[in-house]
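Lines hold sequence, tokenised fold; shown next:
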Amino acid sequence: MEFGFLPSTDLDTIDFSLPEGDDSILPGQASPDFKFYFGAARWGRKEWVGTLYPERLKESLFFDEYLKHFNYIELNAVFYQLPKADQVRIWAEKAKPYPDFKFTPKISREITHIRRLKNAQAATNNFIEVISEFGAALGPCFFQLSDNFASKHFDVLEEYLVSLPEDFKCNVEFRHPDWFEPEVFRRITDLLTDLNIGLIITDSAGRRDVVHTSLTTDSVHIRFNGYSNHPTDRQRMEAWRDKILNWKAKGIKEVYFTLNQWENDAFYVSQLTAREVFKDLLV
């Protein structure tokens, strides 16, 4: 959550308007299969007990309660430690009563941050094998490249992405600023479009370059970092509602919207605001 952080006193100085972006990949007419997914990065937040979760709820039941409120989980925890296949099957079984629920796991740091996409085939195969146990509940996984993985490593990235199975649905999050230089950005969006890989949009106050609003598939993953319910949170959500409704009219099929808060105890009010703003999408 430190990525793009600014003190709240600076927020009123930021231009939060969304850029036009390139959505030319969309067919131009609404899809009957459109789905808006809304969730958080983790379900195990003790700060939510007594607000989002009932008082005295046991930690072992956090996910069961989470399923009642959201239709997807970003599942950041697997970035740090890949679970056993048996554990994945348990989570998938819990989600079965909610047939529209999706898991969008974050690719292991062994692959992205330790191996930096080199000599990572065995680790990738293992990750895919374990995560596939989610079955029909598996949404697109996502790669978060490290802050110092710059565009000089383009060839490494291309070689790795080309090696992925064609049926492995995934998105990529870039953090180093030079990926967003116009020439490099065109090059990477062309590559991702050719490979049918999504380009994550991260909305943080201190890094407006990563709020690019360009699409490389008909599915998009938006990572929204709120600021403890500062008035700009709602303004930014409203801008995203309008952008998503525009994409919906043009034929986007899936939108995954992850809500984060710098302070976890601010999440309850934040998700209530999001439900109000996105009420026309949460159907």
Remarks:
- The mean pLDDT is 96.
